[in-house]
Amino acid sequence: MASSFRAGEWLSAPLDVESSETLLDAERRTETAPLRRLKPPTSLYLKYKHFIVGILAFVVLVIVAVSVESVATSNKGQSSKEEEVDFPSLGDYNFPFECPGMAVSEKLQRLVSTGILQQYAYNQPESQKLLQQAVEMAPECATVRWALAYALGPFANYPVLEPAEVQRAHDAAQAAVAALRPEEAGTRASFLANAIAARYPADPEGDQAQGAADYVEAMKAAYDAVKDPDVAAVYAEALMMIHPGKYYLGDGSQRQEAVEAEAILEHWVKGEGLDHPMLHHLYIHVTEEGAPGDKDGAGRGEHSADRLAAGIYGDFNHLNHMPGHTFIRMGRYKDAVDTNLAAYEAYSAEIEKGVVPYGPAHDAYLLIVAAATDGQYQRCIDHSLKLKGIYTADPDLSMTDYPDQNVGYNTLLTCYVRFAQKDGFRQVLEVEDAFDPPAPSEFGPHDDPELTYSDVLAHYARALSFVGLGKLEDARTERAELGKGMETCIERDDGEPDLYRRALHANLSQIAAAVVDARLALEEEDDAAVLTHIKAAVDQQVRGPRVAHLRAG
User: What separation in angstroms does the CA of 141 have from each of 98, 134, 145?
Assistant: First the structure.
């Protein structure tokens, strides 16, 4: 029996989704590709106005949501027993290749092209499934074996492999080199196979950072020899993986690897006018950290965002979602809503073809933020319910598909208070499970086992709702509880760079407290205190963790 998630029931039944299985079912795990946890980059994107009831009431949700990457989301580790493939639409993408000594059948061509496109869309479980089938069809083809080795590697949302994953990727890469035929010397197949072999250390416990550097050098040689858009995309990605998700320095300048990657992307996307899924995907990521609203900042990626938003790769939900990263940075909030609605439509097409979608919580969260900022009340509410349904359907998936339930479970409450309507305030107070998010079966090192920040958001929304209903003493009680959660978040923040979610929770908790304090001061007609608390919120935002601005995915 398929899980409710796989069957797509969560698309139409946002609350109380029940299932006898979870998406990360035992049958969908592989021993060599265990459940992965994202290390989501963060962003702080604060919108505030003097009159606090409106946008300021929503500020915490906006700040966290714009950090989504990314930062999205990795479902890596899933596998499928299905052998027959109902291929999705590839748009105009195709990965042409040859296998010396054999004819490339239409099915093999589609397996490889679709598998690589799934990798470009960060859906590695589906990519690996297809490319493993391709290897079984053409075990002596070096290009096919390269494709699988590539799909087994790290990517922006999961930059470091576990030792068992290193071993599997290394073995696949060595098999690709071994499959090369003499007549393939100097061809794309040879360059790619030898480059991927340089990526993975022979020792599973070896230095992956050195492997990444060696991979860049090998891919540079490949790109110098073969001016091909796929080689260009893989080379640009290799450069970006030297500092994944951290393409800018503290002074606002780009890292050298990002500068080099962007030059490659710009040549093909703008200079050659080429549509290519990975080139567009990477162009959005390498530019989104630029100044918001600036055509020479985050706006450098608008062309790629507009092209992907046109639906040129319609059945690949993550590619439909990606333009939202740029649109939300450029103030195009309605467009960010629309592109993530398109991602939801793609979910249905994917599920019908037996494909598990990539990053549904990530997409829903960005949609919620864009809808709230654009004033789309019903969209904000509806997709908050859907997001809650995703967390309910599979709490373990939620921990890998950032934002997790600690951040996203109470978006319904923050949507209500963002629009500052009395009916919404009452709805906040009627939600019975605000302090009971579904817990996963295990936590990662940077997670909050007590889901404290989720409680902070609930107290935040309840405090603002009580103020909106004129119940100031109740609001102060909620503010006191918020303060306790804030102190817990601050205590957990030990400054460890790899555990920056803790720093984010501590930072946002303090912003939430300052917003509530400002709202109470406004009700008490203490204008000086209002400004003091607003300034405290903004100052805290400026000092907050700036791991990688609006990345993920």
Answer: 8, 9, 6
